Amino acid sequence: MTIQFKALPTDNVRALQRGGADAYGHRPERQVSDGDGVPCRHCLKNVAAGDAYLVLAYRPFPELQPYAETGPIFLHAQECERAPEDAALPEMLESSDYIVRGYGRNDRIVYGSGGVIATPDIAARAETLLERDDIAYIHVRSARNNCYQCRIERA
Q1: 63 with 41: CB under 8 angstroms?
Q2: Closest by Cα among 83, 154, 89, 153 to 121
Q3: Which among 28, 37, 65, 82 is least surrounded, fewest beta carbons within 10 Å?
Q4: From CA 140, how far away is CA 146, in angstroms rounded?
């Protein structure tokens, strides 16, 4: 099976970069990166030291429901190119491990699918999970803070 890592849609990101409201109705906060641990969810690269970035509340689900987690994410403040949708592990995934968790077509967690996975093993774990009929897509989340990183789907 072929998988693809998916960044946030460009239309949504451009709206936020232009001052649009986040998931809580607030304007994104602007910060300057020290170059450490500021992964942009659009280009799937880290924001370089000295570059401006946005901090905002993001809900990677189409509607409110009990499993629709909302949390903080980072984006480049200036326009950046969206990461290609392919099987390559995103550059920004630098931690030793991440939560990898499956969701059904109803956007609910598929219980038993989640786990803390070593970064080099994320793609293999995603392929295994996506072989299941009850899993529509996967989230990669921080193993320390549960922050949304990116989505994985079947190619």
Answers
A1: no
A2: 89
A3: 65
A4: 9
82-100 per-position pLDDT tens digit: 999 999 999 999 999 999 9
Sign of the CA dihedral with 30 first, then 35, 36, and 40 last? positive
Are 141 and 70 within 8 A, CB to CB?
no
What is the DSSP code string of 21-71?
Answer: --TTSPPPEEEE--SSS-BBTTT-SBPPTT-EEEEEEE--SSS--TT---E
> Cα angle at 40 between 120 and 102, to 5 degrees?
50
Q: Which two tokens stand for residue 52?
A: 């401006």
Contacts of 50 (CB under 8 A, 6+ apart): 32, 33, 35
Distance, in Å, from the CA atom of 155 to the CA atom of 32, rounded to the nearest integer, reads 35
Tokens of 134: 């009850």
The SS3 call for residue 146 is coil
Taking alpha carbons only, the member of 86, 79, 104 closest to residue 150 is 86
